[in-house]
Write a structure and sequence with these properties.
Elements: H1 3-39, E1 44-45, E2 53-54, E3 59-63, E4 71-73, E5 85-90, E6 98-101, E7 112-115, E8 119-123, E9 128-130
Parallel strand pairs: 1-3, 2-4, 3-5, 4-6
Antiparallel strand pairs: 5-8, 6-7, 8-9
């Protein structure tokens, strides 16, 4: 094969490789965004609660115990798919505990969870666990 023809083939091959690499980079960026969308759970945000409240899966429960302690009721773990979550956040700054209670199953291995903090509750299908 003449030298000119070989150089032309190399030029076309290099252009094809650059085009393919650019497409691959775009695909990786798109796949990364799509994977992040699947991993990051979006929460429905509650109004600030300050009395007995029933939480829902996929919710961020914002609570304020400055007026006194109260209970946040959790769904029964047997009715929730494993891996589903409920987030909670103390927005009042009070050191008074709120109590999380599930009608069946445990919360962190006990009947209830009392906390004045913020966190995430994860269901395993049998119980709720705080992270």
């Amino acid at each position: 094969m003449p030298l000119e023809a070989l150089q032309t083939v190399r030029a076309f091959a290099a252009a094809d490789l650059q085009r393919d690499l650019a497409q691959l980079e775009r695909n990786v960026e798109q796949w990364t965004r799509e994977a992040a969308d699947r991993v990051v759970e979006r929460f429905d945000v509650s109004a600030v609660v300050s009395a007995t409240y029933t939480a829902a899966v996929g919710e961020l429960v914002r609570y304020d115990t400055s007026g006194g302690a109260f209970v946040i009721l959790l769904p029964s773990p047997s009715q929730v798919l494993a891996g589903r979550t409920i987030a909670y956040r103390n927005v009042g700054g009070s050191a008074t505990n709120v109590t999380f209670d599930a009608p069946t199953g445990n919360v962190d291995g006990t009947d209830t969870l009392a906390t004045a903090g913020s966190g995430l509750l994860v269901c395993d299908g049998e119980a709720w666990w705080s992270l």
